[in-house]
Amino acid sequence: KRDEEFWLEDGNIILVTTTRPTAFRIYKALLTRQIEIFADMFASSTPHEGEMYQDCPVVQLPDAPEDLRHLLRVLVPSKTPLFWRNKGDPLPTLHSFSAIIRLSHKYHIDQLQAQALAALKEHYCDTLDAYDARVPIYDQDDRRSGESTVEIIELARLTDTPSLLPVALYECLTKGQLHRGWRREDGTLVRLSNAHQQRCNNARDEFA
Prior knowledge:
Blueprint: E1 2-7, E2 13-17, E3 23-26, H1 28-32, H2 36-44, E4 52-53, E5 56-61, H3 65-75, H4 94-106, H5 110-123, H6 128-132, H7 147-159, H8 165-174, E6 182-183, E7 189-190, H9 194-207
Parallel strand pairs: 1-3, 2-5
Antiparallel strand pairs: 2-3, 4-5, 6-7
């Protein structure tokens, strides 16, 4: 099916997710200028007749449509331009943070990954001064339980960013969600690794 947000009639390339197949028609040049791996992929591929639709090459991506949509909202925004976030503007969701970090890591969009991680570090910090000065960085509904911090721990592991762990593990411990996971938009359930569960259990024993 066509994605309602990212089916641009004058687009010249179509990305199709293999998870719950969804087609995104966008502008090839906007992607290749920002994602080197896509530039290499498109340059080396010669679509067969069955891989064309309305004279547009069709590229299959092994991603969930929800994740790709979050990434495209940053790379090729089609509805709301964003230069500066005003006070009172809605915060991004944790799903958005997660998708952008995971796909920017996967496709080597280093600058975008660094920006998203820098935002997370504003909340999941590693000094007391920074902890006292924290402000919300993603939607409140995602932060009401310790479940969301399970995803933060997974993102820290994926990107090798251990500075996110102290606050994330502490929140998992104090909010009592050690064994519950975080459900992503595509249905994937993310759980704490055995090693991180053991670290939390050891800390809980020390506090007791």
